[in-house]
Amino acid sequence: MITPAILRAIMPAAGLRADVFALPLVDAAQRFDISTPARLAGWLAQLAHESGQLLYTREIWGPTAAQRRYEGRADLGNTEPGDGKRFMGRGLIQITGRKNYLLCGLGLNLDLVAMPALLELPDAAAASAGWYWKARNLNRFADAGDFVGLTRAINGGTNGLADRQQFWARAKVALGVTA
């Protein structure tokens, strides 16, 4: 079970945001079969890193060199001028790109292409993280205890691995994961 106290144990800097996000995270976990302590620990650890401990539901925009490369990326479905910024990372797991907004929106029954900022709201931010997890079958990594594989599946590499592993260690303790 996800409670504000458990979220604060995993994400000490979350503060009152743990109260705001607890119920939406419970709902998303139930909806998208993030149903064991090991799955929850992996999911919450990744969300802790991706969202800065529930602080960010929108990517901080520079734009950085990496963000400039979002523009025109066919693999992200960014085919129209301005798509790079319009479909920047949002939600607790940072859904990025027109194609992912479209797919996530279909999965959540929201028009995220027309209203991308919906992913900044707690319910949609949490639900999008659950949708992303389920759509990419990430339970398989959590079930196997493969946190590095899980990080690669979410991030495309191992960016922030040490930070993610610290959150994972806290999550395993908070949720009673013994393996």
Describe this protein's structure.
The chain has 179 residues and is mainly alpha-helical. The chain has a domain of 91 residues. 55% of the residues lie in helices and 0% in strands. The protein contains ten helices and no strands. The protein is globular and about 50 Å long. The mean pLDDT is 97.
Q: Give the assembly state of these chains.
A: single chain
Low confidence ranges = none
Shape: globular
Number of helices: 10
Radius of gyration: 15 Å
Features:
179 residues, mainly alpha, 10 helices
Summarize the structure in short.
The protein has 179 residues and is mainly alpha-helical.
What is the strand and helix layout of this fold?
Elements: H1 4-10, H2 17-31, H3 37-50, H4 65-68, H5 83-86, H6 98-108, H7 122-135, H8 139-144, H9 147-155, H10 161-175
